[in-house]
Design brief:
Layout: H1 12-22, E1 26-31, H2 40-46, E2 55-57, H3 69-84, E3 88-93, H4 104-109, E4 117-119, H5 129-144, E5 155-159, H6 168-181, E6 185-190, H7 196-199, E7 207-210, H8 213-227, H9 239-253, H10 266-270, E8 282-287, H11 289-301, E9 306-312, H12 318-328, E10 332-334, H13 338-348, E11 352-355, H14 357-366, E12 370-372, H15 391-417, E13 462-463, H16 465-471, H17 476-493, E14 497-498, H18 500-511
Parallel strand pairs: 1-2, 1-3, 3-4, 5-6, 5-7, 8-9, 8-11, 9-10, 11-12, 13-14
Length: 512
C-alpha cells in the first residue's frame, strides 16, 4: 500500500457513477460504507452540476457489520425505486463493500422490481475508474439495446461522452455539426444525454461514431458484433484528425464528405512567418491515452513543436501509446504515479507541458507553462463558455490554449529583460503619474566572505545574489533547465557557491 496526495483515477465505481450521472432515468444503488459518498462532490463542485448524481448509498457503518448488511442493501434498492421511479437500475459495490461479498446483483434481482436491473461486477482492487465507465456502458448496452429496424435516413450514434468528461458536452456539439453537414442524422448520443429507453434503440443507427475509446470502445465492439454497426476509429482532435474523421464517416456511410472549415485559424497561422519563433518548442504530453495521443499528433504535425515526452495513466491503452511514442522517437511513460511524471518532466526540461490538472501543479513547481488537455481536471476546466476540443472550433481552441502560454511567456521575458532599465525598472515608479517618488530598491544581501565547504548534494548549493539576478535574465520557460544544469555542473566541479562566472561556465559546458 502506498499513500498519495493525487490520483489520476478513482476506483471503478466512480466510473459507473460518471455514466449514471451523464444519463437521465437511470439510478445507481451503491453498496458502500459511510465515508464512500465523497464522489458526489466531484460532480456538484468540480463539474458545477445543478443537481446531485443519481446515486443511492446504503451507507452502512461499522456496527452494521455484525448484523445483516444485505437487508440494508435491499431496503436501499426499494427506497430508491419508490422515490425516483427510474427506467432502469444499476447496482454494485464500492471497494470497501466488495470485501463483505453481499452480492448486490443477486439481492436486487430477488426483489422483482418492474424495471431492468443491471448488476455491475467492477473489481476495485485490480481495475480503475476508466475501466468502470467502459464496463458500465457496455453492460447497459448488452442489457438494453434491442434488435430494431434501421432508420430510413442515414443515421449514427455518438458514443463515449460521460459525466466529468473533459469538454465532452462541447465536443458533442461540434461533432454533430460535422455530421449535419453530411446529411447524417444523430440517432442517439450516449451515455451522456441519453435515457435507458434511448439505449434500446441504439441498433436503429447505421454506424457509430466513437469519440472517447476509454468509455465506449467495448460497447462499440459489441454493437458491431451483435447489431452489425461499424464504428469510427478516428478521434477528431485537431485539424488533420477532423478531416480524417469526415473522410472515414463518408466511407462508412456512403455520404459525400463535406467539411465546413472556413473558420479554421490554426492552419494559416502555422504557415505564417509569425509561427516561426515557436517552431521546435519542446513539449511534454501526459494524460488519458485518447487525448495524449491526439495532442502529440497535433503538436508535431500541426503546430511544429517537438514532442520530448509522451505518456498516459490508463494502462488499458498502453500498447497503442507505446507504438506512437516509438514513432516519435521518445520512451513512453505508462504510470499512475504523479511523482514519476514529475521526475520525467524535470529530466526532459520541456518548454511547455500538455497534461492534466496534476501536471498544471507540477508545471507551477518547475516554472514551466502547462495547458490542460485531459481529465482529471479542476473546476476551471469546466468553463461556462463553449470550449470544445474536437471539430473545427476545437482546433481553434487548441490553437489558443497551446500557443498563448508561449506567447505570454515571450512577453514576460521582455518585461524581465528591461526590468533594470532606468525607465522601466521597479525603482523608476509609474512613468505616466508625475510627482511619484521612485521606489527604493531592496538592499542586496552581502556575498559570503568565507569559502563554503564542498556541497554534499545539489540541495547544499548556494546562489550568490548577483548570479540569481543574472539567472532572471534568462527566459522563464527555459530558466528552470538553466538552473538545473548550472547546479549539476557546480556539483560535479565541487563548487559550493554559484557565481555569475559559474553560470556562464555551465552554459559553455552544455553548449559543447
Amino acid at each position: 500500500m502506498k499513500l498519495t496526495v493525487w490520483t489520476y483515477e478513482g476506483p471503478p465505481h466512480v466510473g459507473a457513477m460518471r455514466v449514471a450521472t451523464g444519463m437521465e432515468g437511470l439510478h445507481y444503488v451503491l453498496h458502500a460504507p459511510q465515508g464512500d459518498t465523497y464522489a458526489d462532490l466531484l460532480f456538484t463542485m468540480i463539474e458545477r452540476r445543478g443537481k446531485r448524481p443519481p446515486v443511492t448509498y446504503t451507507t452502512f457503518q461499522a456496527r452494521d457489520l455484525g448484523s445483516d448488511t444485505a437487508t440494508l442493501f435491499k431496503d436501499a434498492c426499494l427506497a430508491a425505486y419508490e422515490r425516483f421511479k427510474p427506467e432502469a437500475l444499476i447496482v454494485g459495490a464500492s471497494c470497501t463493500a466488495e470485501l463483505i461479498q453481499d452480492d448486490p446483483g443477486g439481492l436486487a434481482e430477488a426483489l422483482g422490481l418492474p424495471v431492468p436491473v443491471i448488476a455491475l461486477e467492477l473489481p476495485s482492487y485490480s481495475r480503475k475508474e476508466l475501466f468502470g465507465t467502459d464496463e458500465t456502458f457496455y453492460q447497459l448496452c448488452r442489457a438494453l439495446a434491442k434488435p430494431v429496424d434501421r432508420t430510413p435516413e442515414v443515421s449514427c450514434n455518438i458514443l463515449g461522452p460521460v459525466g466529468l468528461g473533459f469538454r465532452h458536452r462541447d465536443d458533442v456539439v461540434e461533432v454533430t455539426k460535422l455530421l449535419d453537414a453530411m446529411d447524417i442524422t444523430v440517432n442517439c448520443v450516449a451515455p451522456m444525454g441519453s435515457r435507458p429507453s434511448d439505449l434500446a434503440r441504439l441498433g436503429a443507427a447505421h454506424f457509430n461514431v466513437v469519440l472517447y475509446p476509454e468509455h465506449a470502445e467495448n460497447a462499440a465492439r459489441w454493437l458491431e458484433r451483435e447489431h452489425g454497426q461499424p464504428f469510427t476509429k478516428t478521434v477528431p482532435i485537431g485539424t488533420q484528425a477532423t478531416r480524417r474523421l469526415v473522410d472515414e464517416v463518408a466511407q462508412i456511410s456512403g455520404q459525400a464528405a463535406n467539411l465546413q472549415d472556413d473558420d479554421l485559424r490554426q492552419p494559416w497561422w502555422s504557415a505564417s512567418v509569425d509561427s516561426t519563433y515557436l517552431t521546435g518548442k519542446r513539449v511534454f504530453i501526459f494524460g488519458d491515452a485518447t487525448h495524449a495521443m491526439a495532442a502529440a499528433r497535433v503538436a508535431r504535425d500541426e503546430m511544429g513543436f517537438e514532442v520530448c515526452g509522451l505518456g498516459c495513466y490508463n494502462r488499458e491503452f498502453a500498447r497503442p501509446l507505446r507504438a506512437l511514442a516509438k514513432e516519435f522517437g521518445v520512451e513512453a511513460l505508462i504510470t499512475d504515479d504523479y511523482l514519476e511524471v514529475e521526475h520525467a518532466i524535470a529530466e526532459a526540461a520541456p518548454e511547455m507541458i500538455l497534461g492534466t490538472q496534476m501536471e498544471r501543479h507540477i508545471g507551477k513547481r518547475l516554472g514551466i507553462p502547462c495547458a490542460v488537455i485531459s481529465s482529471p481536471v479542476h473546476v476551471q476546466d469546466f468553463p461556462a463558455r463553449h470550449s470544445p476540443q474536437m471539430g473545427v472550433e476545437g482546433a481553434n481552441v487548441l490553437f489558443d490554449t497551446w500557443v498563448h502560454p508561449l506567447v505570454m511567456g515571450l512577453e514576460e521575458h521582455l518585461l524581465t529583460m528591461f526590468r533594470d532599465d532606468f525607465e522601466f525598472s521597479d525603482a523608476a515608479g509609474p512613468s505616466h503619474h508625475g510627482g511619484h517618488a521612485p521606489v527604493p530598491p531592496a538592499p542586496e544581501a552581502a556575498a559570503p566572505t568565507k569559502a563554503a565547504p564542498a556541497p554534499k548534494s545539489i540541495e547544499d548549493l548556494v546562489w550568490v545574489p548577483a548570479a540569481e539576478k543574472e539567472l532572471r535574465k534568462i527566459p522563464f520557460f527555459v530558466r528552470g533547465k538553466a538552473r538545473r544544469n548550472t547546479e549539476l555542473f557546480a556539483a560535479e566541479q565541487g563548487v559550493s557557491e554559484i557565481s555569475v562566472e559559474t553560470l556562464y561556465e555551465a552554459k559553455a559546458h552544455y553548449a559543447r
